[in-house]
Amino acid sequence: MSVFLSRVLAALDDGGDHVLFHHDGTTLTYREAGELLSRFYGGLSGVHGTVAIDAGNRPEIVLAQLAAQLRGVDVLLIAASASRPARAAALETTGAALLTDSDLDALAGSEPSTPDTLPGGVTTVFPSGGTTGVPKLIRHRGIYDGMAGIFRPDGTRTVLVTAPLTHMTGNAAVLGALLCGDTVVLHRKFDADAVLAAIERHRVTALSLTPARLAAVLDSPSLHRTDLSSVRQLSLGAAPLSPRRLTEALSVFGPVVGQGYGLTEAPMIASISAAEVLERPELLGSVGRIVPGMEARVEDGEVSVRGLSMMEGYHGRPPIGDGWLPTGDLGHFDEDGYLYLHDRSGDVIVTGEHGTKVASTAVEHALLGHPRVRNAAVFAVPGPGGEGELVHAVVVTAGAVTAGELRAHVREELGGEHFVPAAVEITDHLPLTAVGKVDKRALRAPFWRGHSRGIA
To answer: How many structural domains does the chain have?
Structure first.
């Protein structure tokens, strides 16, 4: 019997009139969520194999997911950022029955039903980010009973979720809150001013942001007039965070800011607390130490991991078991076991006549050290005649600054000409993926159009 599902049902039964969701100006209590879950369970009586959910951010996503899993059905969560071909490929590969927003609305009118017995476990399939091509399908099973052991009844927290519930970050945040009996403030999309308003209105105690979304919050004109005193935990992750932005976040939110490192394949790998950073400022650039139950090593510059939070495996491939998973992230450990990430292996720029390797995040952090740079993205573009690669930067600025000044700043900060962007574009904003990462693929695409591959 699934300990996870048992805990979920108990939480819904015990929650009563306590609010589970604030969403779109309405509330959904634990009792109401339990009733809706029973209707979804009844409506899915004829479904077998795999159910795919592709819908906008709404509570029904998680409730339909749980209803399907109570039926012993695997659940494929279609990423909000997935392209139309990627969506079609995921459905074809898994043979899943698709549930969209209209299907969720229809299922909510089904006759309620409750399970007599619980399945032995649950499986959720998450597409990878697809930053290197067609997304892989990642099967998770063991982490759910692990969550049931980690998240204990509390009921005192209010968690703000802006990430898509079809993404690991948003999905795990809501399931964790449910297991704790807490309240979720769920937004359909990210908006910095809406985040700040929600923190003050609902007395939000915990939230998670990507670096790009943290930057938007820190740069919001509403920040200085917002009461942030309720926030007890601000978790940052999903992409490298510049030391300057982490310092700023600690100054604004206080000693409640922590940083985590994980992948969809292994959601928790390393973490670092505000207390550690405040005690040792030199750790500002670290993602922390490896969490209990996980192991990591660096081979040829690349981080590999294994342990308790690992996926079951990629769909259609053998389970990974106790094997090591190469993360695609480049990094190193210091003598105290703190992990520092340099870049994604695919984001390393090979430039100059000697093929010098430049980590794009190193240049981004140098640019972000300039007082007038608010955000930055660095990537490779083809050199003259399509030969070799050049370092290219796109930056968002506050105040007057020239491309030449920014190039000189990078040269001064990093000390090598190969780090200096060949060109710096100044723009009003950077495109983001649905989960809040800077969309370098979109930025790169115009430069590589007409080339047979995205590397020269």
So the answer is: 2
